[in-house]
Amino acid sequence: MSDRDAAFEAYFAARSDAMRATAYLLCGDWHRAEDLVQQTFTKLYLAWRRIKRHDALDNYTRQTLVRTFLSDRRRGWFRYESVGSEQTERATAPAGLADDRLMLLDALAKVPPRQRAVLVLRYWEDVSVEQTAALLECSAGNVKSQASRGLATLRGLLEEERVR
């Protein structure tokens, strides 16, 4: 095994679970999250030789993950809404999740993809506004407005769920 492969393998072992959790928040499906992570790490491996700054590797990987998610959504590569998807999601979620968390994840899955990406990066990954803007290739103002709209949508969905 080359040093390059060993370094990639170590990085994959250290970060794949965290990226899988982020991917799940983006797409709302554990199987799809696994696919997104595989696509992301495949792209990362192909670019591994060209990457000079390994201190910025997490940002590069996160950016690749989010762009892969958004790209697949645009192309219609994966159908996120399907008959019975709510039952499937509850069955595949890790055991022991609280009802509030399930309600939040269900609501997050209904937030538009770009707003969801901003919410996940800002509030799950704790990425700054400026870094989120760089990752999504948009302005800081756009990130702020997407976050505001996304939070408003999320609050509305959660309120509807509580009323039921």
Automatic annotation (TrEMBL):
<feature type="domain" description="RNA polymerase sigma factor 70 region 4 type 2">
    <location>
        <begin position="102"/>
        <end position="154"/>
    </location>
</feature>
<dbReference type="GO" id="GO:0016987">
    <property type="term" value="F:sigma factor activity"/>
</dbReference>
<dbReference type="Pfam" id="PF08281">
    <property type="entry name" value="Sigma70_r4_2"/>
</dbReference>
<dbReference type="GO" id="GO:0006352">
    <property type="term" value="P:DNA-templated transcription initiation"/>
</dbReference>
<dbReference type="InterPro" id="IPR014284">
    <property type="entry name" value="RNA_pol_sigma-70_dom"/>
</dbReference>
<dbReference type="InterPro" id="IPR036388">
    <property type="entry name" value="WH-like_DNA-bd_sf"/>
</dbReference>
<keyword id="KW-0805">Transcription regulation</keyword>
<comment type="similarity">
    <text>Belongs to the sigma-70 factor family. ECF subfamily.</text>
</comment>
<dbReference type="InterPro" id="IPR007627">
    <property type="entry name" value="RNA_pol_sigma70_r2"/>
</dbReference>
<keyword id="KW-0804">Transcription</keyword>
<dbReference type="InterPro" id="IPR013325">
    <property type="entry name" value="RNA_pol_sigma_r2"/>
</dbReference>
<protein>
    <submittedName>
        <fullName>SigE family RNA polymerase sigma factor</fullName>
    </submittedName>
</protein>
<dbReference type="InterPro" id="IPR013249">
    <property type="entry name" value="RNA_pol_sigma70_r4_t2"/>
</dbReference>
<dbReference type="InterPro" id="IPR013324">
    <property type="entry name" value="RNA_pol_sigma_r3/r4-like"/>
</dbReference>
<dbReference type="InterPro" id="IPR014325">
    <property type="entry name" value="RNA_pol_sigma-E_actinobac"/>
</dbReference>
<keyword id="KW-0731">Sigma factor</keyword>
<dbReference type="GO" id="GO:0003677">
    <property type="term" value="F:DNA binding"/>
</dbReference>
<feature type="domain" description="RNA polymerase sigma-70 region 2">
    <location>
        <begin position="18"/>
        <end position="77"/>
    </location>
</feature>
<dbReference type="InterPro" id="IPR039425">
    <property type="entry name" value="RNA_pol_sigma-70-like"/>
</dbReference>
<keyword id="KW-0238">DNA-binding</keyword>
<dbReference type="Pfam" id="PF04542">
    <property type="entry name" value="Sigma70_r2"/>
</dbReference>
